[in-house]
């Protein structure tokens, strides 16, 4: 059994990092944490975001509204607050070093939360492909929104995430870049697993 092995997966919205992270965790038997849910939960709780972050409970991560577009925008806003990020760092770092291995996906895992992670992946895709994925996801959930609106929201969120002073969205210097624009989910997961297996092999050597 792997004692401690951290996989950090970062990238912008709808690039596929969540799907890849869950599949990778299942493949290797690692625990998985979607760190974006922490920020979505803080944003969805409303009120003072700093107080919400400091008092966040596990059951807050199981709210039914955390996958909505509104929760995503709220998450991006509260994630720009340094005190909110600081309140959630310890939780993420403890999870990352749990026994049995861990996969964390978010926007600053490889750069801020787990700079010493054994594997770092940066998952990305073109704006149009990401917007199409998110639009189809929202439509399936019954949301009445246009592709143009989704694309505009996505680009606004990207800009906010990239330009924030605290932990801006960017790939770690030693991250493996995984562009999913023209990849199937199966191909993307395969490439991610291969990158992790290479690092595991080097560790054994």
Rg, Å, rounded? 16 Å
Q: How can the largest sheet be summarized?
A: 5 strands, parallel
CATH topology: the name is Rossmann fold
Average pLDDT: 91
Structural class: alpha/beta
Query: How many beta strands in the DSSP annotation?
Result: 5
- Write the CATH homologous superfamily: P-loop containing nucleotide triphosphate hydrolases
**Rough outline:** globular
The strand order across the widest sheet is 2-3-1-4-5
Give the low-confidence spans: none
Assess the beta-strand content as a share of residues. 5-15%
Amount of helix: 40-55%
What string gives the helices and strands in order?
EHEHHHHEHEHHEH
CATH class: Alpha Beta
Q: Tell me the count of domains.
A: 1
Q: What is the rounded distance between the termini?
A: 17 Å
Total of DSSP H or I helical runs spanning 4+ residues: 9
At CATH's second level, what is the architecture? Answer: 3-Layer(aba) Sandwich
């Amino acid at each position: 059994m792997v004692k401690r092995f951290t996989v950090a997966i970062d990238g912008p919205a709808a690039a596929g990092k969540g799907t890849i992270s869950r599949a990778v965790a299942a493949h290797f038997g690692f625990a998985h944490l979607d760190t974006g849910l922490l920020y979505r939960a803080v944003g969805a709780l409303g009120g003072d975001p700093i107080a919400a972050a400091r008092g966040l409970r596990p059951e807050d991560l199981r709210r039914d509204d955390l996958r909505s577009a509104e929760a995503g925008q709220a998450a991006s806003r509260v994630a720009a607050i340094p005190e909110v990020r600081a309140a959630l760092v310890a939780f993420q770092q403890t999870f990352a070093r749990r026994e049995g291995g861990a996969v964390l996906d978010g926007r600053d895992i490889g750069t801020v939360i787990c700079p010493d992670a054994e594997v770092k992946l940066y998952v990305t895709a073109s704006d149009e492909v990401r917007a199409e994925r998110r639009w189809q996801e929202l439509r399936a959930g019954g949301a009445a929104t246009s592709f143009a609106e989704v694309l505009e929201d996505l680009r606004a969120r990207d800009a906010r995430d990239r330009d924030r002073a605290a932990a801006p969205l960017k790939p770690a210097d030693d991250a493996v870049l995984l562009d999913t624009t023209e990849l199937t989910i199966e191909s993307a997961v395969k490439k991610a697993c291969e990158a992790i297996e290479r690092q595991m092999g080097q560790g054994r050597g």
